[in-house]
Design goal:
Blueprint lengths: L2 E3 L3 E7 L5 E8 L6 E6 L10 E5 L14 E18 L21 E13 L3 E7 L3 E4 L8 H23 L18 H25 L5 H9 L2 H12 L11 H12 L16 E2 L5 E2 L1 H20 L9 H20 L10 H5 L1
Parallel strand pairs: 1-8, 4-6
Antiparallel strand pairs: 2-3, 2-5, 3-4, 5-9, 6-7, 7-8, 10-11
Helix pairs in contact: 2-3, 3-4, 6-7
Length: about 350
Amino acid sequence: MAWRLKHSVIRGEFSNREENRITGRLWLVDRDEVITMDLEGNFLRDLAGCQITFTNPEPTPGEDTGLHACQVGVSGDMTASRKVRVMDLPPEEIDLEQMPLVPDRSQPTRYANALYLEWFSDYDGRVVIESTDFSISVSEPAWHMTSEEEAEQEESNREAFRAWLEHLSEMDPDQPAPPLDYEQPLDEFGWERLMRESDRKTERLGEVLEKYHGHPDSEKLIAREMGWTWLEEELEAQERGVYDEEDDEDDPREDDDLIGDEMDFDWPEPDPLKEGIDWVRDENGDVHHPLALRAMKLGLQLWHACDQLGVLNDSRESVVQNMVIQVQICSAKLAGALNNLAYDDDQDNGFIVA
């Protein structure tokens, strides 16, 4: 996972006055040692050739600040004009505790320019600083970047991001494994490899979504980084107008009929002989495996307890938050493996063990 810094940043100085080199210093909360930068690459065109100084008006602890003291590597996207959507409300009217997990589209929002500093460290991997709240000062440029040079720098940044994703998706080199034979039933080891591969792809998708959110070509870039060539080709075909206009004017009632069919689906009744052993009902009458239900309740209780203590924060590298997430992931995996025991006599034992 990437390192993401925002609240713990006190101030920083980054300079690209020397072409193809970025140097700088970074001060973080609860860390006396100053982090130094020596990166290969350039800022994007809005900052190229400049020195930038940024200050966080309200630094707070909570994020993991255990970065290596000397950041050596290559630059990613570094710009002060990244477009992000922010809530268009006075700070005193924003209640973080009541903010829904799913964004409420009825709330007023606006686009703002964010400072976005990304680099790929030889020691720590991908590091990102992003905020719309920092005070920023920019010097006069020592040199000017052309549009062609900016295109080259953007492509170089994408290559660095792609290389990091490939490293993120690598399997353990000490445990080489032959390709799975999907024609034969998988044992627990095959299922475990399949799940690990799914976890790697999920993590990769999460990083790609975070990287390209708000980008005008986000769909194409996400498809390209995930290796979904079919989707990238279809998006390009749509841009060329390959599809007839009739295809874009589908009857929305057809989708409503499909949704209605799904809502009318009658789930089978669980085996009454397995009640209390392989299934129980929760307070809403839904069927769960007893272990999966206990794990789900534990995840909810843990989240509420940590939230009340104020130890949760929006840093993905938070130890406490990572613990809560892992418990919730475990409960979801238990549900996927065990809940069908209430209905199906023909179980895949390898899948359950994995």
